[in-house]
Amino acid sequence: MALTKVTSGVRTLATGEVETANIADSNVTTAKLADDAVTAAKLADDAVGLAALAPQTDGSLISFDASTNPTLISPGTSGHVLTSAGAGAVPSFQAPSSGIELLQSVTASNNTTITVGSAGGSNHFSNSAYKKFLIHAYDVDLTADSFFKMNFGTGTTPTIDETSSYGWAINQYNTNAASASYTNADGNSTEIRLMSSQQDAASPTDASFHVELINPSNADQFTMCTGWAMFGSINLDDFHRSLFFGVYEEITAITAVRFSLESGSFETGEFRLYGVKDS
Hints:
Layout: E1 61-64, E2 70-73, E3 81-83, E4 92-94, E5 100-111, E6 113-116, E7 118-119, E8 122-123, E9 130-142, E10 148-154, E11 159-160, E12 166-175, E13 180-189, E14 192-193, E15 207-214, E16 223-232, E17 239-248, E18 256-261, E19 266-277
Antiparallel strand pairs: 1-2, 3-4, 5-19, 6-18, 7-8, 9-15, 9-19, 10-11, 10-14, 10-18, 12-13, 12-17, 15-16, 16-17
């Protein structure tokens, strides 16, 4: 059957003759739009919300590459920080090159001793990324009046040394409503003392102390430490602050630090070990 071209009755639509209201929603499909039909000028400011973005891995960030095109920054490892690579380069998450990092946390609950430095088979003190270590204890409450003591451990499974290999010196400031005084003490004994008088178990003021260790993994020298302690007695106006220095007179690497008491136990307390980056 032959086809006949129909030319009569056909006319060109005038500009503006087809109104939006006369176009069904289903008639405008993706296929009807040219790839470059929707330009930036057609998008209103703030028109593209979060829901319009393609899903990405949690922790990713949007940046721009050297060609000024959008690019994704992959999530970093926990503890890493966003590090600039300079102009024209995409930043990335990297381990911090300096600063202080929390390595271990121990909570006391009626413990006679608290040990930090070695946990779960890991020896924090042997990590070459750190040359200095800080131990901070706070909210320390005791079950009996007592002195704070510190010993060092050595070996893969740390053995705590309780021999007479320790030397220590303390300068302590004591104050109350009536007077203030200084006391000095030193000695060689089976532990390093952090104070020259006892923390009162009934004191409304919890004790705190801070210890600094320099390069404890060095097996060619004595291990030295310094720090401070703050504690009180049963009287609200009776406080003590000590500055102490200690030395472990053995040429060996340290793998653990143990805190103990002359009597009683650590009823409560938070003990934190931090590593200070070498650079």
